[in-house]
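Researcher: Next entry in the queue.
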Amino acid sequence: MPVMDVRIEDLMSQASDIKKSLNLNANQQVLWQQTESKMRAIISARQRRREQLQATLKKGLDDSHAELRDLAKNMANEEDLSYQESRQLRELWLTVNDALDDSQRQTILQLLADQLQRVPDQGCSQKSGDQAPRHMGRQKQGSLNNPMAQ
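Model: Structure for this entry, 150 residues:
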């Protein structure tokens, strides 16, 4: 699976299994819970924002006098916010990684390597019609959906 196709939602669905395999100590458990809570809040806010954007775009397209450039600004704003959030999500997990011991870090590296070896499901990989980001140049610096990229 290409690293840029790994979505944060997919990684979050595996979080409890990953957490179990790490055998976290008490301090690491607290940090993990705080990080997971912050991530869920960011992802939830992103989803609500995108639902609102979808509704706004649909309403705008129903207007026969709509300006596509104005509607595109809303999408550009969402892309910028998502990019910033992805950097924030990545930093949150890097902070957790910093708190792990060498053995735990090796476990994480192996889990991420295994993730990249997976074949994406037919409906799960991003196609051109999905909500893939438009600014592919920025995406090379880090995925909008994957906080662990780069």
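Model: The radius of gyration is 18 Å.
Researcher: Noted, moving on.
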